[in-house]
């Protein structure tokens, strides 16, 4: 007892179903693209941070060497002058003592910059590498889980489509929970 009106309504339902399935597939595909883009952006950011700190470590090391050379040059110069004997007779705040304090401060600064360079090279950069590897694994796992969920969703949608094709939905021969799920999914 298929009337033309019922046939037309069934065709409309099938067409609406097909449209909704296509929209869902498009949304799922877009979500995967977004996940891939996020992964690429984060990997690039971590690579940029590694490059930045590697270069900063080089600059700190060069600066440290230059400070050391500067201090040594002037320390050697003061050692070779007669100021050494004069220095022993001077007050604690004498210009020669201040000069030596300044040069020793520069040497300490040089060591501090060497330490900073070592921290960048031996602690920060390896940590960025580790975070990058961890992020890659997490994104890969997220993508696998997302793909599995998408596959399961499409399988359920196809099963529902098959059930609808057989007319079981209209005859109430399926469990009410599945009907509620279908109605909730399609917003009815």
TrEMBL record:
Keywords: Coiled coil. The keyword Translocase does not apply. Transmembrane segments: none annotated. The keyword Coiled coil applies. Pfam families: FCH. SMART domains: FCH (SM00055). InterPro entries: AH/BAR_dom_sf (IPR027267), F_BAR_dom (IPR031160), FCH_dom (IPR001060), SLIT-ROBO_RhoGAP (IPR051627). Residues 22-188 form the F-BAR domain. This is SLIT-ROBO Rho GTPase activating protein 2. It comes from Microcebus murinus.
């Amino acid at each position: 007892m298929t009337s033309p009106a019922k046939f037309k309504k069934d065709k409309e339902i099938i067409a609406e179903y097909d449209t909704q399935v296509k929209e869902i597939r498009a949304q799922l595909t877009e979500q995967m693209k977004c996940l891939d883009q996020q992964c690429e952006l984060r990997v690039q950011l971590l690579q940029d941070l590694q490059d930045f700190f590697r270069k900063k470590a080089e600059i700190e090391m060069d600066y440290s060497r230059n400070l050391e050379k500067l201090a040594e040059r002037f320390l050697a110069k003061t050692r070779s002058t007669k100021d050494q004997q004069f220095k022993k007779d001077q007050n604690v705040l004498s210009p020669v003592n201040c000069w030596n304090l300044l040069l020793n401060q520069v040497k300490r600064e040089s060591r501090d910059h060497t330490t900073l360079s070592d921290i960048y090279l031996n602690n920060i950069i390896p940590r960025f590498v580790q975070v990058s590897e961890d992020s890659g694994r997490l994104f890969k796992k997220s993508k696998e889980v997302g793909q599995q969920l998408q596959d399961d969703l499409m399988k359920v949608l196809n099963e529902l489509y098959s059930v609808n094709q057989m007319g079981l939905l209209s005859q109430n021969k399926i469990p009410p929970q599945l009907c509620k799920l279908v109605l909730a999914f399609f917003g009815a």
